[in-house]
Write a structure and sequence with these properties.
InterPro entries: Glyco_trans_9 (IPR002201), LPS_LOS_Heptosyltrfase (IPR051199). One of its GO terms (molecular function) is ADP-heptose-lipopolysaccharide heptosyltransferase activity. This is Glycosyltransferase family 9 protein. The chain contains 13 helices and 14 strands. The longest helix has 17 residues, at 16-32. Helix 7 crosses helix 8 and helix 7 (194-206) runs parallel beside helix 13 (333-346). The chain starts with 6 loop residues before the first strand and ends with a helix. It folds into two domains: 7-154, Glycogen Phosphorylase B (Rossmann fold), CATH 3.40.50.2000; 163-346, Glycogen Phosphorylase B (Rossmann fold). It has helices at 16-32, 44-50, 67-77, 92-97, 134-144, 163-172, 194-206, 219-231, 245-254, 264-271, 285-288, 301-309, 333-346; strands spanning 7-11, 37-43, 56-61, 81-82, 84-87, 102-103, 106-108, 124-125, 178-181, 210-213, 237-238, 257-261, 276-280, 297-299. The protein has a six-stranded parallel sheet with strand order 3-2-1-5-7-8. Strands 11-10-9-12-13-14 form a six-stranded parallel sheet, sandwiched between helices.
Length: 349
């Protein structure tokens, strides 16, 4: 842009990992253009993690309200006209929400990442990036409003956590070496086997780590945690469903190391610069892995997607997913132990 916009609307409703990635882009914009007023249209759950983000006004979009959610969005924004809308989500619900946001310019993803009629709701696009991580895709929006690319090496995630939430975490996550396992992704097929999590927990305990489980209040999270505890011969602290998102963030900040599949807490841990050992089989960790810790991913993605598509990964469309209910079984306990040891060595744990 030839001039820095004075009013910016961010549209990114979900999910937890993605809004964590988006924070890095938003705060890069704030550093480069501190006078800009930023309004972020966000989902209700995601807001619970990001509320009180410095210099950002939030407008909550409650998808559970169905059609009424769009009416409420229009009412919340009133007659405001933003200099630019940065439309960072291609889901149809988010695409439709742009109809209720007035902006002089509406910017969306490049052609390669456009889907669900995204192209019909924008006037211009960010630059194409070859094989970007999701975070780098969001950073393309920051570049469009004047942030230089070198800022990618100077990322920040200033997500406020209250003293009360920090005290909550301190009471539960003590001193010494702490491993947090966030075992459950949103879909069961993306989860590792409970007995293998249990074996890693035992291995970590033998290395002097206190081991805790964390996750959301959903039935899959609780079922997975219960199964791990049944297979485990060491004591585990079970905080699954026992924390708010802010409290969980504070706990992840106190951890020495986090182990997780492709799930929100993995990316929350990245914002706290806590090392993450990622477990991937369905999605490309180069695209969705823990951004600062992609060298510590145990991945079965490449072998499965190549076998299914009949091509090497480098010849497939970026973001192609592998499919199957049992792919995570290909990640062995020995692989994870070796990566665990590497993290301990590299971070002097």
């Amino acid at each position: 842009m030839t001039a820095s916009p004075k009013t910016i609307c961010i549209l990114r409703l979900s999910a937890i990992g993605d809004v964590c990635h988006a924070v890095a882009a938003v705060q890069a914009i704030q550093r480069h253009n501190p006078e800009a007023k930023i309004t972020w249209v966000i989902g209700k759950v995601e807001y619970q993690l990001l509320k009180n983000l410095p210099g950002v006004e939030f407008v909550i979009f409650e998808k559970s309200k169905g059609k009424e959610a769009f009416t409420l969005l229009k009412k919340a924004l009133g007659k405001r006209v933003f200099d630019v809308l940065l439309h960072m989500q291609v889901a149809f619900r988010a695409n439709w929400a742009t109809r209720f946001i007035q902006a002089k310019r509406k910017v969306g993803f490049d052609w390669g990442r456009s889907k669900e009629l995204h192209s019909l709701f924008i006037g211009e696009r960010i630059k194409y990036k070859k094989e970007p991580h999701v975070l780098e895709g969001f950073f393309g929006f920051a570049q469009l409003v004047g942030v230089p690319e070198e800022e990618l090496s100077n990322l920040t995630w200033d997500i406020p956590v209250s003293d009360k939430d920090k005290a909550f975490a301190e009471q539960r996550i003590g001193e010494g070496k702490q491993l947090i396992i966030a075992p459950a992704a949103s879909k069961k097929e993306r989860n590792w086997l409970p007995e293998r999590y249990a074996e890693i927990a035992e291995y970590a305990a033998s290395k002097g780590f206190t081991v805790s489980l964390c996750g959301g209040p959903g039935p899959l999270d609780k079922e997975t945690a219960d199964a791990i505890k049944q297979h485990c011969n060491v004591e585990l602290n079970d905080f699954v469903g026992q924390t708010t998102l802010k409290q969980m963030l504070a706990m992840l900040a106190r951890a020495s190391l986090v182990i997780a599949p492709d799930t929100g807490p993995a990316h929350m841990a990245v914002t706290q610069r806590t090392p993450v050992l990622g477990l991937y089989a369905h999605s490309n960790p180069g695209r969705t892995g823990p951004y600062l810790y992609q060298d510590y991913v145990c991945s079965a993605y490449e072998q499965h997607v190549s076998a299914q598509q009949g091509k090497p990964v480098e010849k497939l469309k970026w973001g192609t997913r592998a499919k199957g209910a049992d792919l995570m079984q290909s990640i062995t306990v020995d692989q994870v132990k070796q990566t665990f040891d590497l993290i301990c060595k590299d971070f002097e744990l």
